[in-house]
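Why do we bother with holo predictions? Because pocket geometry can differ from the apo form. Keep that in mind while you read this record for NAP.
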Amino acid sequence: MASQEQQKYDVVIVGAGMAGMYMLHKLRGQGMRAIVIEAGSDVGGTWYWNRYPGCRCDVPSVEYSFSFSKELEQEWNWTEIMAAQPEILEYVNHVADRFDLRRDMVFNSRVSAASFDEDAKHWTVTTEQGESYTADFCVMATGCLSMPNKPEFPGADRFKGEVYHTGMWPKEAVDFAGKRVAVIGSGSSGVQAIPVIAEQAGEVIAIQRSPVYTFPANNRKLEDGYMDLAKADYATIREQQRNSQTGIIYYSPRRPKPEGAAPGKPKKRPSKTILELTPEQRKQEIRDFGFNVLSQYVDVHTDPEANEIACELYRETLRELVKDPAVADQLAPKNYPIGCKRPVIDTDYYLAFNRPNVRLVDLRETGPIEEITETGLRTQNGAHIEFDMLVYATGFDAMTGALKRMDITGRGGRKLVEKWEDGPRTYLGLQISGFPNMFTITGPGSPSVLSNVIVSIEQHVDWIADCLSYLRGHDLHVIEAEEQAESDWVAHVNEVAKGTMFTAPTCNSWYLGSNIPGKPRIFMPYVAGVHTYRQKCDEIAADGYRGFALAG
Ligand code: NAP
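The structure, written out:
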């Protein structure tokens, strides 16, 4: 697009992932002049950067899609229950083309700073490439998992082979054939990548610091007729998603019965709690419903006794899947509860360890990685592990990383990095006191990563757009979260997370910032659910944006 230097906009949006894309579309519809600044060379955010082998969504495709356009819903066909990265990127590109979004987007431009001018009441956003954009409002659509975490191992630059990070995967195909590939990390990315790389590589060395609770994705191709039924059901699907806890309803189309067919048996459902079952009944439920059921009992998420029973049954199941008992034991998570970390789902992760070309290195036995060498890595016990390629599947500086990486300056020269030194503070995850006219989509303090993020993105975009329209209608130019409202919200977010497995003392997760050395241990997302959260946001708006200071 043509140079936008020094141009003035109504809204500058940072990030051309799904949040930035919909924000732009929505604001255009309201007659506002908006521009999107994006570090990548195209749209897609998460789906643009995470191109690693095996990458796929863990939310059913028809639910992990935009609801804002009925035409879009009707014209797009998904091919799998849970789409793989290439298909989602294709969808995202289709959305960009269909709504002509790229016209107001600047690519290959990484925002380095944003600052609020109190007199002019506008934001100036500058990029590493030296461009600057001025707008009345700034929307950070920077994503929750967009700042890759690459641990700084001594000697990392010495390694002579190819090095990749799952969250910054190149567009070009990577050739693993005949190579010894080390994969550091066993979170969602490592668990997805390892079985697929193992099919191509000479050897995969899975380097594990913490074993993971991972459940089968049970993915499959969509059968004929599925999309027709889903399209007819979209209105109901969306309504149910918005009124749910997570924005995921695990939609299953109800096929019309052939005429004259006998009524089917009522579907058997698992018990609500694990504690009400006898040991034999628990095993029967695993046989009936698969071992995913272990993470579905409500008491597993709130009662440590129920949780430990589920963990033990999980380890038993794992021992049945992995042939080598010693490897099964190394892969078995212990000492932290199911439900503490973000649920991981996989396709044949454990079965990959039955392959002759997959080897596990358990850092709990060897000690941590001490250094990277020219040909591999050395662990604390002195062992040297040799390989040709190194894949970091080491995750992200989640929720705050992308925001803190920019130099954001609010009222009175206040820096966001200083304000958030002890952890993020927001009002509703939408605004930060001291930073007027800046909004965060799926910011810390909102359901965001605990939900189907598209549902949360759409809710935030709609709320922000309504808010801007309200300001315009009332001849108001500045909106800022009040300090007290923010403090009350932070306290509420902490309160509702108490007593859940997310904040168990033995839990270390990226939700808590524990994956980043030195990051304050604060539980960042809002656990009360997308439905409750939406109601609160709507009530606050209906009450004249209670807790926000509005000025002309
Ligand atoms: P992650 O869950 O944070 O996992 C990172 C892995 O790297 C962990 O096993 C971690 O060990 C390990 N690690 C980090 N630093 C290390 C070090 N210094 N030495 C050795 N090991 C180290 O990251 P992720 O797998 O990229 O997933 C992040 C999130 O992205 C997911 O939770 C999910 O929300 C999203 N995601 C979703 C999908 C999907 O839709 N299916 C796929 C990929 C990612 P510790 O556990 O000991 O810290």
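The pocket of NAP is lined by residues 57-58, 145, 151, 166, 184-190, 192, 209-210, 342, 363, 369, 393-396, 449, 510, 515 (CB under 6 Å).
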